[in-house]
Amino acid sequence: MRSEYDLLISGEKLGGYWGDYKGDRKHIVVPDGIKIIGDRAFDSRQETETVEIPEGVEEIGEYAFRWNRNLVSVKLPSTLRKIGKNAFYECEHLKDIDLPMSLQYIGDSAFKGCCELRGIDYSFCEEIGLNAFSGCRGLADDDRFIIIRDRLPHFII
After folding, report:
1. 57 and 79 in contact (C-beta within 8 Å)?
2. Which of these, 38, 73, 86, 125, has the minimum number of CB atoms within 10 Å of its CB?
3. Torsion from C-alpha of 93, 35, 15, 30, nearest 10 degrees
4. Does the predicted model carry a pTM greater than 0.90?
5. Rounded distance, CA 61 to CA 58, Å?
6. CA 140 distance to own-chain centroid
7. 143 Cβ neighbours under 8 A, 6+ residues apart
8. In a domain? residue 157
9. Which residue has the higher pLDDT, 144 or 74?
């Protein structure tokens, strides 16, 4: 019997908790054919250091990688359109992530507490949620961040 916390692959959606994930716990590779990484899919995984998300994924759900405190690097596909609220919340060591030009939406507190995040470009995003980059001290002196912050005054560092 499956619990509500098991990792489910249902058609094109990967959801639930990571209990059934059989891959390397330090290096997550999302399987091909997935379009949505569901809410809380990889929530609270302390051992995860890197994540590879394949082409075709369009959405990362809410809290998907929250509290992955040792996460350093995430490879995002060029097909990604949406990052849900709190998706990378408190991934305090995350520093290597390039947002694709296809990205339209970054949810509330999506990268809140990602202290080591630096040098990312999100100027092309159509909508950026409240406190999306709050606590990202590495972005404080980034010229691109300052330009966006002036355009979207709800940004808080």
Report:
1. yes
2. 73
3. -50
4. no
5. 10
6. 20
7. none
8. no
9. 74
Which amino acid type is present at position 52?
E
Q: Report the domain count for the chain.
A: 1
Q: In the numeric block, which tokens belong to residue 74? A: 């995430």
Structure token pair of residue 4? 């509500």
Domain interval for residue 25: 1-152
> Which residues make beta-bridge pairs with 7?
16
Report the alpha-carbon angle 66-67-70, nearest 5: 120
C-alpha span between 116 and 85 (Å, rounded): 19
The answer to whether the Cα torsion of 149, 100, 97, 55 is positive or negative is positive
CA atoms within 13 A on the CB side of 96: 10
The tens digit of pLDDT for each residue in 113-132 reads 999 998 888 888 999 999 99
